[in-house]
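COURSE: Structural Biology Practicum
ASSIGNMENT: Worksheet 4, Part C
STUDENT ID: 0417
INSTRUCTIONS: Below are two proteins. For each, the amino acid sequence is given first, followed by its structure token string. Answer the questions at the end about the second protein only.

PROTEIN I
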Amino acid sequence: MKTTIVIYGSSTGSCQSIAETIASKLGVETVDVANIDEATIASHENLLLGTSTWGAGEMQDDWYDGVKTLKSAGLAGKTVALFGCGDSESYSDTFCGGMKELYDAAVEAGATVLPGVSTDGYTFEDSEAVEGDKFLGLALDDVNEDDKTEERIDAWIEAIKPAL
């Protein structure tokens, strides 16, 4: 596996916990988006980016500055995989929508973004983070569907690992 880092934004700790689980399974480092800089991005070939979703589908607050850092560093030649946390019951109409903003930023910065997971088995009304029948990354509801989190992470890692 090429140099890989998990970068996350988390206000309540849910996305941080998921990021740490993913990093542990891959044997890589995690870093809070508030602490990234261009040198960190430049020194890794693979970036796994995670955000929680707030309000009407916005990404976690620290990502707004983080996106600026991603864009200024440039992501040409880098591989990006996305994961997002959401609440499929209380915010069923914006479930994991924050991933869409990260996806758009990564594409604009020149990254190759890996395909996401199928929407099969998920219960939600709508999400900007869905194209066709797939999320733009790994979508997780660790509040209402925590019994599915580990299995979904494992399947996602198996799917993306060959590209890393």
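PROTEIN II
(use this one for the questions)
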Amino acid sequence: MAEELILSYLQDFIPDTISQKSKILAVRFLKLVFGVWNDTCKLLQDIDGKEFKVDRWIRAEGGGGITSCLYEGNKFLNATVDVTVVRGHMPSQAADQLREAGRMSTAWKNDSPEFLAISMNTIIHTRNPHVPSYSYTLRLLVIKLINGSEEGWFGGNVDLTPAYLVKEDVMNFHKILKAACDEHDLSYYPRFKKRCDEYFFIRHRGEARGVGGIFFDNLDFRAEKHFDFVQSCARVFLPAYQPIVKAHLDEPHSEQEDTWQLLRFGRYVEFNLIYNNGIKFGLFMPGIRIDTLFASLPITAK
């Protein structure tokens, strides 16, 4: 019953000002990511033995969300799983960021268009340096054009960030992602893997943040094939990580290995504060929940 109430709470943030067709698609996507949120929280809580703190919040300018946090757990240093529904008129700085990324229709002339953004984000950092940090995101952006029509995109990404590299883990991780992509289009995996490698690169260091994954964006939300692909991603993001956690979570580790993990966490912080587009976009949104926006940062770093 509690889960139904939370889903209803989130659905109430979807505005009636978008078209009925877009609203149906938005509700459908929200139900999908809410299911991922629920499954992820249950799994991580079962592994750690400590309960998530669940926080519902409202953005005065439109929208809100639910953020589940597990800080200083038995197994996890910090883990955050959130679903955010933001609506209203997009600030000009946020619109400029989308234009720079090439996500602007020729019909989009309004500097402050009405929009709806739905996202589900998971970030996991463990105490054991032999277990990689993990993050995945699914998102939908709908924009109302000045002529009254609407455009929308699905996007998402998943990436693995180990402090210590285990070749077999990385190969199996990518094998699962490739199978999910190949089910829909054989060009997806090489395209989306390349995009992920390019995105999660710390340019000022000249090094990758981790071992990649997939990164996709600009998939027309009106195309059923794109929703099917997003569903496939939602099904595999947890199974791609579970075997790695199970294999290494209880491995012994030394003080030297712990120190190395802190240095890798430091690189994670550098990337997110300088290059992370989601954080940049969120900072342009008045009233956004800052604790949720920066939940991806490890609570210790060096």
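ANSWER KEY EXCERPT:
Q1: The radius of gyration is 19 Å.
Q2: The longest strand covers residues 76-89.
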